[in-house]
Amino acid sequence: MSDEAMSSHAKRLEGYRAESGKTIEEMASLIGITFESYRDLEFRDNELFQCISLAELGTLSKALNIKASDLFAEGSASPQGITSLTQLAEAIENYLSKRGKTLPEFETIVGWEIGNALNEPKEFLGLNVDGLKDICGELGLDWLSVLAFLGEQSTQRDDKLNPQTK
After folding, report:
1. Residues 42 and 9 in one domain
2. Residue 101 has what DSSP assignment?
3. Is pLDDT above 50 for 156?
4. In Å, how far are 50, 91, 98 from 121, measured between CA atoms?
5. Are 89 and 121 in contact (CB under 8 A)?
6. Phi, psi of 44, deg, nearest 5
7. Contact 145, 82 (CB under 8 A)
8. pTM of the predicted model as reported, rounded to 2 decimal places
9. What would the pLDDT profile of 104-151 be if each residue is shown by its tens digit?
């Protein structure tokens, strides 16, 4: 794989940050990570997938005024609908029921512990993108659709927290 292809996500992030006018220092502070950790997000593709949680990715996307899925969609690929965290939990429960598997067996298959996320779907926000991809891959779900939901949620939360005054 060429250097250009290997760093496409990191370069995309760097471009969005530059367009926003924010500095690396500002972004690191907004997300709650170190300068060095944020810099790595813009220089190493695997960092976006492995080193920040979905919650931090949501904060990053909101700060840049982009959809989280924009960082990962390749070419004209876009999310196939929107999958909520509750729907993700329900999909896991359906998978377990249909296949006669236990939660620990599912966790072994996907390689991720999801703990209490079936009862409290917001717990999924502690996963990183690789975790989301692995879980959605086993379920046959589009992981970008979960990221699209996260973008919808941050917009709705902002509307509730910052209602426009007339």
Report:
1. yes
2. -
3. no
4. 20, 12, 20
5. yes
6. -135, 120
7. yes
8. 0.84
9. 999 999 999 998 999 999 999 999 999 999 999 999 999 999 988 886
Structure tokens at 12: 């995309």
Residue 17 included in any domain: yes
11-41 per-position pLDDT tens digit: 999 999 999 999 999 999 999 999 999 999 9
Query: Could you tell me if 12 and 50 lie in one domain?
Result: yes
Long-range contacts of 31-36 (CB under 8 A, 24+ apart): 31/56, 31/59, 31/60, 31/63, 32/56, 32/59
The torsion angles phi and psi of 33, rounded to 5 degrees, stand at -125, 170
Residues 146 and 68: their CA atoms lie apart, in Å, by: 10
Asked if residue 66 is part of any domain, the answer here is: yes
